């Protein structure tokens, strides 16, 4: 039991049974007043301690409620962050897939462009060969014409000239056809560049 100013509760109870010799004597008024004063003082101390404990309990309950609220807010924040992370991961995966698609598309476009360049180069080489062939044929015809001039009579000259002119026209039309084909391939290449 808690002692109150040097006097225990048992001592206070025992004061009522003080012995004077063999006879029981009731406690004196001064003693009872002192006991009452000590009890009141103890009661006030206990009341103060109770109020302090009650205030501390209320403060702790408020703090606990605040901590619960904070924990609930943090759980919500964690949930939001997790959702955001999941969303960002999905966006990242989509971006990676789109990047892969774009890289694949770019590679296909580059391959196609390279193929078109090769085709144009081939057409140019063919055109050059045809032109050289045409020039050779023209030179041969010129030589033949010079040789034939001495063989044929002037009366046949208009006929031979017409024949040579027709051959020349055929070769020129062939060359123009090849040039138009080359021009068409160049236009396709330019169109592909614009699409890219």
UniProtKB/TrEMBL annotation:
Listed GO CC annotations: synaptonemal complex
Keywords of this entry: Coiled coil, Meiosis
Pfam families, alphabetized: SYCE1 (PF15233)
Residue ranges the record marks as coiled coil: 36-98, 124-195
InterPro entries: SYCE1
Keyword Nucleus: no
BP GO annotations: synaptonemal complex assembly
The family this protein is said to belong to: Belongs to the SYCE family.
Protein known as: Synaptonemal complex central element protein 1-like
Organism: Nothobranchius furzeri (Turquoise killifish)
Gene designation per UniProt: si:ch211-199g17.9
């Amino acid at each position: 039991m808690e002692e109150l100013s040097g006097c225990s509760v048992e001592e206070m109870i025992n004061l009522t049974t003080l012995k004077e010799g063999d006879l029981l004597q009731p406690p004196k008024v001064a003693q009872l007043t002192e006991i009452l004063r000590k009890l009141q003082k103890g009661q006030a101390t206990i009341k103060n301690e109770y109020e302090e404990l009650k205030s501390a309990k209320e403060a702790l309950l408020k703090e606990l409620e605040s901590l619960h609220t904070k924990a609930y807010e943090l759980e919500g924040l964690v949930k939001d962050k997790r959702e955001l992370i999941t969303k960002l991961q999905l966006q990242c995966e989509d971006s990676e897939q789109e990047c892969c698609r774009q890289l694949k598309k770019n590679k296909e476009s580059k391959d196609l462009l390279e193929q078109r360049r090769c085709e144009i180069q081939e057409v140019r080489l063919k055109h050059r060969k045809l032109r050289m062939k045409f020039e050779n044929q023209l030179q041969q015809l010129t030589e033949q014409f010079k040789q034939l001039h001495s063989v044929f009579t002037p009366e046949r000259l208009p006929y031979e000239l017409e024949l040579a002119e027709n051959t020349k026209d055929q070769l020129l039309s062939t060359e123009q056809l090849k040039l138009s084909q080359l021009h068409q391939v160049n236009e396709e290449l330019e169109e592909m560049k614009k699409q890219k």
